[in-house]
């Protein structure tokens, strides 16, 4: 379980990484080559696309950070966790819930994301 929590924390750190090269290296280390990411706003496949989504979210929410909100629950090849996005030390503007499907080598193969709280348009 601690390995899965560490993986989730590294995953969220990748979403916070502002240096494009370091972020891409994190994505490559965390995700299977054919990994997918799906939430209500996007459905992408591959590390290039996942990296691009993270970059787009960073542009939309500059200076905000992702943080784990609660425990990571895991069994078999599944992990679920709630995350928050907001200003450092401030109230979350976005709250989501993700389910990650892990590969046999402990990487992320799929992420299914749900948005529980989103800002008004």
TrEMBL record:
Q: Protein name, please?
A: Nuclear transport factor 2 family protein
Q: Which SUPFAM superfamilies match?
A: NTF2-like
What are the top taxonomic ranks of the organism?
Answer: Bacteria, Bacillati, Actinomycetota, Actinomycetes, Streptosporangiales
What residue stretches are annotated with the SnoaL-like domain? Answer: 8-108
What the entry lists under Gene3D superfamilies is as follows: 3.10.450.50
Which InterPro entries does this entry report, sorted A to Z?
A: NTF2-like_dom_sf, SnoaL-like
């Amino acid at each position: 379980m601690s390995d899965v929590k560490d993986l989730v924390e590294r995953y969220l750190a990748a979403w916070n990484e502002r240096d494009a090269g370091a972020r891409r290296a994190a994505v490559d280390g965390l995700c299977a080559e054919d990994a997918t990411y799906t939430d209500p706003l996007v459905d992408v496949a591959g590390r290039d696309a996942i990296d691009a989504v993270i970059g787009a979210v960073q542009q939309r929410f500059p200076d905000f950070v992702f943080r784990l909100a609660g425990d990571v629950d895991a069994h078999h090849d599944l992990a679920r966790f709630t995350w928050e996005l907001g200003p450092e030390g401030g109230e979350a503007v976005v709250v989501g819930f993700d389910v990650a499907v892990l590969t046999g080598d402990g990487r992320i193969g799929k992420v299914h994301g749900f948005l529980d709280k989103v800002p008004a348009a």
